[in-house]
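Q: Two folds, back to back.
A: First:
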Amino acid sequence: MPITAERKLWKLCPFWQYGTASSTQNLHPSNQNGVIGSTASRSSSSVFSVVRPFLPARRRLRLDPAKNLYFPYEPGKQVQSAVRVKNTTKSYIAFKFQTNAPKSCYMRPPGGILTPGESIIATVFKFVENPENSEKPMNIKTKDKFKIMSLKVKEGTEYAPELFDEQKEQVTIEQILLVVFLDPERPSPALNKLKLQLAEAESAIDVRKKPPADTGPKVVGEGLVIDEWKERREKYLARQQVQAVD
């Protein structure tokens, strides 16, 4: 019995038959007991779990300046910069500074906890090395960087740097700030803004250092306490002396 050309083609390529069969089955899927729906849900969940680490983390803090720390260029001196840190969430957020140059840089405060909507101005101190040649401030390059991290905490939590080690998976790197030098003798918007922020930071420190108002008895001189009870007692003793004399 002669074999037709069509049968020869099917015989040479048998996998077409399976592909055709599976394709035919896909055209008429059976959605029994929600099998397809649950499979799709599991598939999307697994895809999200794989992609999630590569998605940008949601920011909890707003920084001003957002990308750089500006320092006046004064070789051989310790100079200051400032950055405003604001909590933009409705939760309590802990923040922490880190630098790759701890010997020449430090932050005040190095970390803390911000209430919802609270903002502070952090001051950054840096010692500027003398240049090897007469380079201009705009040409000075430095590898110093400052990293600021955030962590969501519960209300009433006391700040401790160890929080970021204990909850590494929940820590977000908000920004890595680069150091930019400014010419202190050349006015610029960045330099003017830096001066205003430093003045505001110093004012906030003075307020925190100011002792609370004393609501107790007044103290006049050294160790002399005047209160109502002592005045009445002295008056009573004076009357007793007058009566004894009479």
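A: Second:
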Amino acid sequence: MISNSFQKIKKVRSYVLEVAIQCGYAGMFVIVAVSLKHGLSHYVFAVYRHILATLVIAPFALVLERGRRPKMTLPIFLQIMLLGLLEPVIDQNLYYMGMEYTSATFASATVNLAPAFTFIMAILLRLERVNIKKPQNLGKVIGTIITIIGAMVMTLYKGPIITKQRSHHRASNESAAGKHWILGTIMLLIGCCSYSGFFILQSITIKKYPAELTLTALVCLMGAVEVALLTFAMEHADMNVWKVGWDSRLLAIAYSGLVIGYYVQGVVNKDQGPVFIAAFSPLSMVVTAALGVIFLAEQLHLGR
């Protein structure tokens, strides 16, 4: 009886945590979109974001997980390095590059493919078993097909504008419409694959290293180091990109550093698996679309 109640509480907790983190991500997408327009380098943003997240999470990891951290081995360390590469380096940079070519709403909409990619990867790696006779498994298969069809419609069909834009934003929106949408879409899709791969590898790593806070801090630290190396390679001609003033750029870094979802996703991943986490990704699109129309005066087309 007590065991069943505990399992129900854990499941409800997983739902609440995922809804909260997706809403937090939606706010981050909008703030970062504004900051990118004001000259913030997405490389520098990723570095500062993960440095801040490391500084915030590390003290909790040192105190709360003292004495129960597993021994660090070379395979686990290499997995942590790969986690830092998949999310902070590949996914985030391609995501924000794609956002610059498209829009915040469109970028968040491509995350709809994360459940499909994650589900397919989980099946291939035998982390998820599919029995079509079971309703929940049939639902996952149908959901995967729907998300792929939806992503194709979203990419290939714009349709009429269904939201009115304010006149003083009209020129900027018209210029944005002429950007390289296909190139931006390709970047976003590759980033989405990397995002799904992160969930899969995280579910594997956390079983071998079940210290969620420490694992999160290490992933953030490795991500910061790897992105910093990439930034020096890509932005070496202009060292002024590292400067951040008291404006929306600093707000974006501070907000996103505090809304790092690796720990929350790690806890949920441990309880429910990677497919459960990815299934909530479309929620951020809905919230981002609303915020984008209200605060960024984005045009919302029927296809999206």
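Q: And?
A: The two ends are 46 Å apart (CA to CA).
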